[in-house]
Amino acid sequence: MRWLFTAFYGVLAVFGPGCATAADLPPVSTAATTSARLFVELVVNGQEKGRIVSMHLRNGHPIVAGSDLLANGIPANATGEVDLADLVGVQAQYDAGGQRLLINADPALLPTSHIASLPRERSHTVANSGALLNYDLYVQTSGGSTNASLWTEQRLFGGFGTFSNTGTMRISGGNTSSGYLRFDTRYRLIDEVHAIAMTAGDLITQSLPWASSVRLGGFQISRDFQVRPDLLTMPLPSFAGQTAVPSTVDLFVNGYKQQSAEVVPGRFVLDNLPVVNGAGQATIVTTDAVGRQVATTVPFYVASELLRQGLVDGSFEAGLLRRGYGIRSFDYGAAAASGTIRYGLNRRLTIEGHGEATRGLQLLGGGVTVQPGLWGVVDIAAAASHRNGRADHQVSVGYSYNSRVFGFAAQHLERSSGYRDLGSFNLYTLQSTRRSDRLILTAALPGQGSVGIAFIDARTLDRTRMRLASFSWSRPIGRLANLFLGADHDFVRRTTSAQVRVLIPFGRGSISAGASRNDARGTLGQLDYQRSIPSNGGLGIAASVANTGGGSAFGQATAEWRGRTMDVQAGGAFAGRRGSLWAGATGTLVMLDRQVYAANQVSDAFAVVSTDGVANVPISYENQNIGVTDKHGRLFVPSITAYHPGRFGLDPLALDAGLSAPVVERRIAMQAGTGAVIHMGIRRALSVSVPVFEMLGRPLAPGGIAHRAGDRIAEIGWDGLVFIDDAAPQESLDIVRSDGSRCRANVKVPAGTQPLATLAPVTCV
Which of 48, 56, 504, 683 sits between 20 and 30 A of 293, alpha carbons compared? Predict the structure, then answer.
């Protein structure tokens, strides 16, 4: 009968709380052949699953439905019941006192947990309609001649995209021609969902490292991943491990903690974690409940040159070749088309292709970018051109490796004599490169500074050769100075140049002195001084003087003042008895929301923060104070990172009494080259106190509640005082006294009442 009592108490423990406890259960005899059905909590490798399953014992072995085991991560047959003693790598024990089934399984049998960094959400951008004018005025006088130029950019922007035009107006006092020279005119529209940019007008074709870009007047459609900072475009490493019990996993990359997470028993994989570019080491530290730690170090290599698996990048352009850029405003030649595509085949291989075509020339090429394990990146590409019935080829092979202390890059390029592309097919005097080799080595030596070595060997089609080698070394000298050494050698001309320089920084300024020598000029001594402009604007100075071994002296000096609305520069230079003076001014005028704003520079996105007419409100962007609103309650913010959801905020504690800010923070993302109005309205809110009395003339007892229109609530304090926040001219208070009885009081706020004033008493009836 013992099994009957066991089953009876088991049922009571689950379905009849209060009738029996786990401690009341008699122990189970392992000699029993079969037990009644029990209901137990499943515990796997020390982790309480929080689920009750049905179980019975057969010859002391727990028997559980296979579906219950599968639901809790134990591999088993889903149909019928399973004797846990028959499962390889699984041990089970019935805890009669705790009414639990304790299972210890090999971690390799348990499900794999995937732990990924928090996904970055795509931020929807805002853009209001407006106009912008960038300008750069420069005037120089030298040798009795004065020249002036005014570069401008005119831009219209909004939800329709951006339309811009750039050019320079030149006024010359010498032989140089005067007039207006146009540079680029284009319209650009962004599809942020698919990260696609469409451009019409003057543009530059996209290319690959083994191809060249040209200017076209036409149309372009291309991928632009900059508009989607939430997308990861390169493959990132995954780090795996396993744990037998619930643990905490910490990930350290190059000694810096990147992530911490709780993991369940079994295998785990840390996916898509942001790490450094190049070679590094990841250390995975698992800590169980009793503090035991196991650390595993795994090397990795991240190649930003690769595309994430399945990701496509590329562009297509068609139009007329631009000629004489910077010399003539309108000079377009033959029709041409160009296309580039890249595809991430897997995490270690990206394939790419490029094609060009115009009348009399066709070009087609392809390549691969491969990451051979932890040993860097290899690039291989080949292209063929067909021109005037002749086929020619180009072959390119490159290798690069980067780490925290060492970097190496090598590239070999070879072309046949007739190989041409869109950039060179009609330049008959161009002596294109026939063969080139390039080697670059950088190293950070512990305690000895940084070293850089480069070697270039190139030959043109007319067999002209160039062989150059350069060396540089920099390191700090104590805590007060930095030393730089550099040398270059031309093997063809057999000339050598070298320089040494010492830099001493102090505050916002720095002084550097150095000497250099080459075979043509001799020895040159130089002294420089620089004082940087403060981040919030002000004066900056740069000056330099030099003297050659023959006694010739020359130098220059520039002063720059940066205000909120303009950047002004002035300076002069001399070389022997000749001298020149110059002055300039740069800035931006923006028309947005029917207002005109001036700034010293607008390089990306911009915004106007509006507080609905309230002046002198401190505004912050990304937790940095950027200014206060003007008398119209507006602040122009000229420098905002495009497509980044930046935080705009205001400090409510800085507001005067009687002002209320319903919104104190907004996160907004904006398109490149556009602006928007960020509304953070502040309204005047009159807060008052009013004593409320009973009809018999005594104050209401404290502790009651006063309900206002819209379910706004105020508490009743001592002497019947009720504080009314944001009071209307007429307020009706439905009051619940402390004893539960009710009454109503009508409050009138006289015109001209000051904030935080105490009104005349009112009666609650």
Answer: 48
Q: How confident is residue 7, by pLDDT bands cut at 50, 70 and 90?
A: very low
Rounded to whole angstroms, how far apart are CA atoms 206 and 224?
11
- Write the DSSP string, 294-330: EEEEEEEEE-TTSPPTT-EEEEEEEEEEE-STTT-SS
Task: Show the CA angle centred on residue 524, arms to residues 522 and 526, nearest 5°.
Answer: 175
Q: What percent of the chain has pLDDT over 90?
A: 42
Q: Is the distance from CB of 245 to CB of 289 less than 8 angstroms?
A: yes
Asked whether the domain spanning 239-302 has the same topology as the one spanning 2-111, the reply is: no
For residues 258 and 281, give the distance between their C-alpha atoms in angstroms, rounded to a whole number. 12
Structure tokens at 699: 């104050």
pLDDT tens digit string along 277-309?
A: 899 888 889 898 788 888 888 899 999 999 999
User: Which tokens sit at 451?
Assistant: 């070293």
> CB atoms < 10 A from the CB of 287, how many?
16
Given CA atoms 715, 721, 727, 730 in this order, what sign does their dihedral have?
positive
The CATH number of the domain covering residues in 2-111: 3.10.20.410
State yes or no: pLDDT of 3 exceeds 70.
Answer: no
Q: Which CATH architecture has domain 688-763?
A: Sandwich (2.60)
- The set of residues, in sequence order, having a beta carbon less than 8 Å from that of 56 and lying 6+ positions away, is 34, 35, 36, 37, 38, 62, 63
pTM of the entire structure?
A: 0.78
Residues 558, 565 contacting (CB under 8 angstroms): no
The 3-class SS string of 156-185 reads EEECCEEEEEEEEEEEECCCCCCEEEEEEE
Class of domain 239-302: mainly beta
- Yes or no: domain 125-163+581-684 corresponds to CATH 1.10.8.60: no
pLDDT at 317: 97
Q: In the prediction, which pLDDT does 423 show?
A: 84
- Determine the Cα angle at 219 with ends 214 and 221, to 5°: 95
Closest CA to 211 of 388, 3, 422, 359: 422
Could you tell me if 371 and 344 are in contact, meaning their C-beta atoms sit under 8 angstroms apart?
Answer: no
Q: Which of 494, 530, 489, 524 is nearest to 512 (CA)?
A: 530
Task: Dig out the tokens for 480 from the structure.
Answer: 């007060």
Domain ranges of the chain: 2-111, 125-163+581-684, 239-302, 688-763
Q: Please spell the DSSP secondary structure of 644-676, one letter per residue.
A: S-EEEEE-GGGSPTTEE-S--EEEEEE-TT-EE
Q: What is the DSSP letter of 230?
A: T
Mean pLDDT of the chain: 86
Residues 180-216: pLDDT tens digits? 999 999 999 999 989 999 999 999 999 999 999 999 9
